[in-house]
Amino acid sequence: MKSTHRVAIIGGGFAGLHCAQALANDERFSVTLIDQQNHHLFQPLLYQVATASLSAVDIARSLRAILGKARNVSVLLDTVTAIDSAQHEITCEHGTYSYDSLVIAAGARSSYFGKDEWAKYTFGLKSLEDSRQIRHQVLNALERAERCDDPEEQRRLMTVAIIGGGPTGVELAGAFSDLVRRALKTDYRRIDLNDFRIILIQSGERLLKSFAEEHSKYTLERLQELGVEVILGPRVDQIEEGYLHLNDGQEIKAETLIWAAGVAASPLTASLDCPRDRGGRIEVEPSLAVPGHPHIFAAGDLVTLTDPDGKTVPGLAPAAMQMGQHIAKVLKEDQRLQKTRYAERYQSLRPAYRFRDKGIMAIIGKNAAVAQTGKMKLKGFPAWLAWLFIHLAFLIGFRNKLAVLLSWAFSYLFDKPAARVFSISRGICKDDEPQ
Ligand SMILES: Cc1cc2nc3c(=O)[nH]c(=O)nc-3n(C[C@H](O)[C@H](O)[C@H](O)COP(=O)(O)OP(=O)(O)OC[C@H]3O[C@@H](n4cnc5c(N)ncnc54)[C@H](O)[C@@H]3O)c2cc1C
Question: Which has fewest Cβ within 10 Å: 301, 316, 345, 427?
Fold first, then answer.
């Protein structure tokens, strides 16, 4: 009987899914993709679920549906808890699985710079559940403010503070402004949504520090026009329930605190004896193999790498997709070389991963975005259009693309958000589960 090479992939995000798809229907491989969620999530649009523009179902798709036609790929819903590289085994909550090659693509999580207790006072934005909780929190706070007679308490309920002025913080701040100042503006009788405060705190000198300075300046101006209060410079040094303190003495009382300031690699990377950076990211070899573990590869947000062209690979979706595809290529090459006279040396012949930079972009609000690729820089309406098309193109599944396109068209034309229903008991709409 012909034996197949067993590949286990941890994580069905951008890296893991693209690796599985690149190995699909190659009969030399038997692939098992394990994820703790049953869906692939398009994280770049999470902020739109959090701000009621989209429903959760629009940006997630069942992994089984995506991989249904890949006969050699099995999907397992389970959480990996440990990796035993000596035994070639991974331990999950519901079982133990053996592999010949392993791909770790479990992504990143929020990091609180050593102040883990801040997690319980702030909302992160990494999962569907996070985005639903934020939406529930803000819409529910508005309901409470509408019932409230105490002006100070009303002001606190109508304040959102976002910590971190990178793309996630900027996109959230702009979208909250669109939500309260345009979409919901006629919906309440006792509160005035012009009083809703959106505070964006960035410890550095400028927003979007990975973008050109002119883009940071444009973003700041646009956000200020949208009524966002931007605080540049001071660091957050204390967070408690509904309260934060900055190291220049400022104090902010806000019902909703959102953490968009830092990420660290999945804790799974600690299962392996290998070099890692301060954020727990694996310092992979150029081929994306884990040093000292030739049968284990890592990809996506949990690796740190400078490619042979000297480019530092960023924690972005295109890089994760490319890395997943590269690992599939290496595995195929390994299989081919193993049967040749290069068998002895085949691991040293593995090709290096090269990052193909597609550029970066961030949306600020209706008709406003910034984008740059190579020497080309766009801002305003052209960047906003480019942002819409690129995000639609990368979204997985025709149904999701159509649903998102219709929601966007509706919001654009009528200034009404698509998803402002929430349930008091769970914060989840009944029709809000991934398809
Ligand atoms: C709010 C937000 C906005 C973003 N916006 C952009 C953007 O505009 N453009 C862009 O290019 N990038 C953006 N990114 C970054 C981009 O989403 C990431 O770079 C990309 O998702 C990384 O892919 P990944 O496969 O490494 O990890 P992920 O996509 O995070 O996938 C990891 C998968 O592993 C699973 N997993 C984790 N731990 C376990 C475990 N123990 N057992 C089993 N399964 C596990 C998770 O459920 C998940 O499905 C954004 C990220 C966020 C959070």
Answer: 345
pLDDT band at 31 (very low <50, low <70, confident <90, very high): very high
Domain 5-36+78-110+263-349 adopts which CATH fold?
FAD/NAD(P)-binding domain (3.50.50)
Question: Is the minimum distance from the CB of 42 to ligand 1 under 6 angstroms?
Answer: no
Per-residue pLDDT band at 431 (split at 50, 70, 90): very low
Q: How far is the CA of 320 from the centre of ligand 1 (A)?
A: 9
CATH of domain 116-261: 3.50.50.100
Q: How far is CA 311 from CA 175, 250, 348, in A?
A: 32, 39, 22
Q: Tell me which residue has tokens 């740190």.
A: 304
- The number of beta carbons lying within 10 Å of the beta carbon of residue 325 is 18
pLDDT tens-digit map of 126-149: 999 999 999 999 999 999 999 999
Q: Which two tokens stand for residue 429?
A: 């709409």
171 is catalytic: yes
Could you give the percent of the chain with pLDDT greater than 90?
Answer: 81
**Nearest 5°: CA angle at 297, between 291 and 303?**
80
- Whether 116-261 and 5-36+78-110+263-349 are alike in CATH topology: the answer is yes
